[in-house]
Amino acid sequence: MPNALTNPINQLVLGLVLGLVGVYLLLPQPKRRAVAVGTFLSIAGMGILAVFLLQTLGRPVNSIVGEVLFWLFSTAAVGFGFAMITQRNPGRGAIAFAFVILSTCGLFLLLAAPFIMATTVIIYAGAIIVTFLFLLMLSHVAGPSDENDRSREPLMGSLAGFAFIGLILFTIHQSTLAEASTAVPSAPLTAKDRENLASAVANIDEALKAETFEDFRGPMKKGHDFIGEALGDDSQPLPGSTPPVLARRLRLPKDPRHIELVQSAKKLAKANDEAENKTLLGKDFPAAKEAAANLRSETILFAGHGLMPARNVANLGYTLYSEYILAVEMAGTLLLVATIGAVAIAGRRKGVPA
Amino acid sequence: MFDFSEPIGMLLLALTLPLVGAILAALCGVTKFAKFAHWPTIVSFASSAVVSILLLIEVGHGHEPLSITQELGTWFSVGRISVPLAFSVDPLSVVMLCTVSFIATFIAIFSAGYMHADSGFARYFALMGLFVFAMCLLVTANNFFVLVAGWEGVGVCSYLLVGYYYAKPSAAAAARKAFLVTRLGDVGLILGIFLLWQVGGYHTNFDQLFEHLAKHPPSDATMTTAALLLFCGAVGKSAQLPLYVWLPDAMEGPTPVSALIHAATMVTAGVFLLARCAPVFAASADAQMVVCVIGGLTAFLAAFIALAQNDLKRVLAYSTISQLGFMFMALGAGGAISPRYAVTAAMFHLVTHAFFKALLFLGSGSVMHAMGNVIDMRKFGGLRHLMPTTHATFLIGAAALAGFPLLSGFWSKDAVLYVLKEASESRSPYHNTYTAILALAGLTALLTAFYTFRAYFLTFWGPEKIPHEAHGHAHESPRIMTVPLIVLAVGAAFAGIILEPMTHGFEHFLERSTSIDFAREAFGKHHNLMEKKHGLDWTVMLGSSVIALAGIAFAAKLYLRGGPEVVHPKLEGVYTLSQNKLYVDEVYNVALVKPAELLATTGRQFDGFLDAIARLFSFAPRVLAAVMRPLQNGLVQFYALGMVLGLAVFLTVIVFRSAK
Amino acid sequence: MITLGHFLAVGAILFGLGLIGFLTRRNLITMFLSAEMMLQGVLLNFLAFGYFHGNLTGQVFALFIITVAACEAGLGLALFLVLYRRGRTLDSSAWQNVREAGLPPTVDVDLFAEPEPEEAMPVLPVAGRKPGAPSLEGANRV
After folding, report:
1. Residue A5: its pLDDT value, please?
2. Interface membership of B635 toward C (CB under 8 Å)
3. Chain B contacts of C95, Cβ < 8 Å?
4. Which ipTM did the prediction report?
5. Is C50:C8 a contact under the CB 8 Å cutoff?
6. Are B408 and B353 in contact, with CB atoms under 8 Å apart?
7. How far is CA B77 from the centre of its chain?
8. Cβ contacts (< 8 Å) between B629 and chain C: which residues?
9. Phi, psi dihedral angles at C38 (to 5 degrees)
10. Which domain holds residue C28?
């Protein structure tokens, strides 16, 4: 039995089936609703899916805090999602939806998207939910009513939903399996590389603080070493399990994502050579310091590849108005048309009884 | 266009005038002039009669054979058949044309009074005009196919006119019966025409065909077959045994229709056909024998049935059949004697019969009109004081029919009996049969006189009895109806004596036709017999006078006091047999009609079965649709569910295929 | 480092739940909110991929999604208002007229369970008197 359970496909199927039955039992129906059993089954199903994810994909975040936050926000999102679709009272459903939004916003923050988080909270939890709560209050029905207490095709609907979830999870599972076989890493700069580059920057900082050439030379040498280690020397043969050196990695199938990375690496190598020359020469101290400062900025730039840029709002605005200007204009037009349309549709017409 | 002073122009004029009259009468019918629809018809008939008589005068003098033909273009041409629209001026056609148009004129005038205030007035006159046109087409045709066109045309018009009272089921059934029974005969006619076309060098015009047959005579068997097939058509159209059953039922039509179609013109088309195709028949004595025998049997049988009929029109109908039998007997005698005499005798009887039979039918129409559409002789009697003109004319017609000496019927019947006598005395191998037929003819003449005067006495003698349907208005018919009666009576009385016995004018005129010429040639080749010149034969005249007077006296003895009929107990069986028409209709019904109906019903069941199979094919999509229709229930979420489930299936397939 | 797959999985689950809610619930508002939840799942997807590639394209697209969702909400609200005015109900099953001609409308057969009868709560009389005690007024009459 335990062997069967460790098979990811089995886990996936079991989790989906439990979730399906749980949702079916939780959906509001006049006859077959069983809240307690349904809740239990849903939680069990989601738990098994979490186990599946852990097993297939490993830990979500490297740091403890990040992992705790991830699991917290995910559980909250999924849990409130369940609550929203199975609540009988639509007002309570709307509040559950608000909490779903807040949870996903937490996840957005983890993904380094603070602006989107803010926008989502404002628009969804602010505008949309409030508006719909007003509509709900207008049309409040007391007692059991068709719309709140019945479901249309609960079994088939749940099946459809869980089929989609299963398909996507299966695809994710398949792609992780595939990932191990290809040589192109998902992140071109590994953590080790970034560590080396961070150490190099620290050493260069130390060197820049030096007053004399001798104090300068020592840390600079260490810095060069670290950079050299990050860039890698492609003349050596590869040992089996270590990831291939960056130079070799970058020479592998041409990925358009890596063009900037390659250019940046070339610039870094050039700056590195130049600084090394100046340092070795030992003649011109200010020129060497200038070269070192240049190397530092190149290193930081290179080390930052694949990381989200800081100053998220400013960068987002810059990207929007340079690369995606047409889309922005069209979105604005869409909003205008939607506003006019909404007013036109919902406005009372003369002579039409309310 | 055509020069109307030329014979062929006059022929075409006489031919097309009735058609114009018919079209005008039909047009009158659809406008508000329906009351005046009789004028175009009567005027066109009258002018056609005048033109025909002028034509007769035009071509009457002279002694050479006369045949002026004219082709009006090709009707159709397919492969080896090429059918021109050919007409010929020739004594046979001229005689028929005169007879038809003259009698039709007076019948039309009578109809104007008889059909007065009937709702289908215009339809009647249009159909009558069309009928006369078709009949004229038939007699003036120089081409078998044009003749068949006219043949079918008169058949159709007969159907439409017999079924004139189409709302009456018995009339509709009678019309259908007439059409279908004559159809049976038409099959033989068409087959015979094709056979002749094939052996006759692929000619379709009469003159060319007969010339070819004369030059290259085919075998005896072929000619006999062709002659018998043509005779089939005549049997159907002229109501001979066994296809006579439609004629008594056709009395359901209006009486003038019976007068025109079933006495004077349409039924004589068969006789005309045999006269026209005399060369074919002259080449085959066996076929002539068959013709004569059938004619004789028919004549006797019909006379027998007419003895006990109570319906005046039925008596006259059977009388027509009987007299047609006489004509065929005469034609059939052409197997033993020269066709010249045989054909002439038949045509002579045809012309006189047209007069007195039309007169008798119109007279019965006059009686019916006065008696409130009652024609059963048991319901009225003693009308001679009430309707003097009708009485007088009816008497003349009856006497002519019976063969009273010196009236037209006497002369023509004598001619027939004479040729039969000659045939029986000839050296033909069948002369004994001809003797038997002669005896049968004599017996038939006796019966004719008897039943004719039975009808006369029952109608006009005895105590006056008027049926209540007359509503007390029984009176003599108006002048529009009695004048034609008078004219026809004059014709019935004097037509015979003028035409034939003294002057042989009819004979001399008729023998100039090319048919008779060719026939004489063919006859001469086959029989190598000398033609006997004949004059008045006193034996026959005396014999037939005695027979006629005996018949009249016998009828007078039994029926002079009119009144209800008393049947001698010993003759009870004969009477019943005669009254029930020898049960021929019942036999036909069981032997022929019921099997045909069974076949039709079986066919319909089979058709229904095939329909069921076709419906089965349409059943499957409908069932499938009915199963799938509830999917469209109008609920958006249901539709969305369907889409999502379908998408899930697709995605599953894609994901699992790419996962391999 | 944050891996991609977990966020995709969470996004997928949110999307699936939203789909279930949209397909099953009959209240128009709940249907709409479920659709918005689907959009949230998609948003999560985009942002995860954006983070994975290290550029801002994902966030830009996410912004447009939010824009479109806002438009959709506005128009949806307007339509719901109109429908409510016409049908006096927020039940999506009230609008079945697009069905095949001749098909009877789908009606709900199950009856709701009887609501539990409310227990009669004990009612306190005016303070100062024991419940059930005979009235003193009558007793005082001599």
Report:
1. 73
2. yes
3. 634, 636
4. 0.79
5. no
6. no
7. 30
8. 100, 102-103
9. -60, -45
10. 4-95
